[in-house]
Structure formats: structure tokens, C-alpha cells
């Protein structure tokens, strides 16, 4: 299972970066075909925007899915916020980060970032993602709330987090499964609730 999990996580990361990398390629092709003033400006704008997006997604994945230091390492939440903003914020979705700066255990920070990924799945049409902790991020419950039109709890996500799913994992379902593994390693339970257009993921 460990080899399958590694392969699926790699597939997920590739899925996240293939779109902006492809856009960079498209921009370069435009420059090759038409280097006139107007087209050059459009192409360069596309390349710059897509390069920033690809970089943001890779940096986010490095922490959320990667090893990120030795066992027991702590991570600065300021760094986590910066990576989360780069991953989340676009024309469709905004991030409201309300967690106070602190050095927090690696697994708890990874879990928080993974909950953000799950929150985005709950609002496929975009909206806002609120991240907060009513107390110490090191010891108290972490909460990520996604609000948007047609918000819903993604099908089967609770079983995936619990590790009790019956269907084989794929690149789309590996994140909630991995989230459950990290939650158990951190000694917390992930809960999901929906209230109207808001779906809340909490870990505590």
C-alpha cells in the first residue's frame, strides 16, 4: 500500500501543476508564432501568471504532502499561511486566515493544509475558505470552513478519512485518505458538518 500511496500522491501533485505548466507552454508557443507587441504582452502575462501559480502549488505540495523536515519538527504558521494563500487565492476563491502566528508540530500543520485542500473540494464553484483555531494551534481544534454556492460534503469523503472506504484509491480520493493518516498520526479526529452553504472541517 505504501508504494501505491506514494504513486497516487505523485499523481495528485502532477494533476495540480499540469494546468499552469501547460499554460506556460502555450504562452511560449504564442511567442514563437507571433512576437508582435500586443500578442507578446498577452503571452508574457500568461507565462508570468502561470509560473507563479505552478510555483505556489509546488511549494504548497512540498509541505502538505512532503516530509518537511525531521520527525518532531515544528513549522512556522506564517509560512503555512503564505503557502496556503498562493494555493487558494484566485479569481474564484479567497482565503480568510485567522490563526495566530506560532511554531506548530509538523503533522498538525500538514493536517491544516490538507483540510484546506478538502475545503476547496466542498465549493467547486468557488467562494471563501476561513481558517481558524479558537485557542492554541498546537493543542486546540483546527477548523477550516468553506462557504460558497452549491457547497456540499464531497461523496465518500468521511469513509476515506476514516480509512474504511470500499473503492480503490485514485488521484482524486487519495487526499482525504492521506488526511486521515496524518490526523491519526497527530492524535486527532477529523469531523465534517454542513450548514447551508458552509461546509466545516474540524480536527481536534
Helix and strand topology:
Blueprint (H helix, E strand, L loop, with lengths): L1 H32 L3 H28 L9 E3 H12 L4 E5 L5 E3 H17 L4 E6 L9 E6 L9 H6 L11 H13 L3 E6 L2 E6 L1
Parallel strand pairs: 2-4
Antiparallel strand pairs: 1-3, 4-5, 5-7, 6-7
Helix pairs in contact: 1-2, 2-3, 3-4, 4-6
Brief rundown of the structure:
The protein contains six helices and seven strands.
Task: Write up this protein.
This protein has six helices and seven strands; from the N terminus they run ααβαββαββααββ. The radius of gyration is 18 Å and the shape is globular. The strands form two sheets. A five-stranded mixed β-sheet has the order 2-4-5-7-6, covered by helices on one side. Strands 1-3 form a two-stranded antiparallel sheet. Helix 2 crosses helix 3 (77-88). Helix content is 53%, strand content 17%. The protein has one domain: Histidine kinase-like ATPase, C-terminal domain (Heat Shock Protein 90), CATH 3.30.565. It has helices spanning 2-33, 37-64, 77-88, 106-122, 157-162, 174-186; strands at residues 74-76, 93-97, 103-105, 127-132, 142-147, 190-195, 198-203. The longest helix is centred in the first third of the chain and has 32 residues, at 2-33. With 204 residues, it is an alpha+beta fold. The two termini are 27 Å apart.
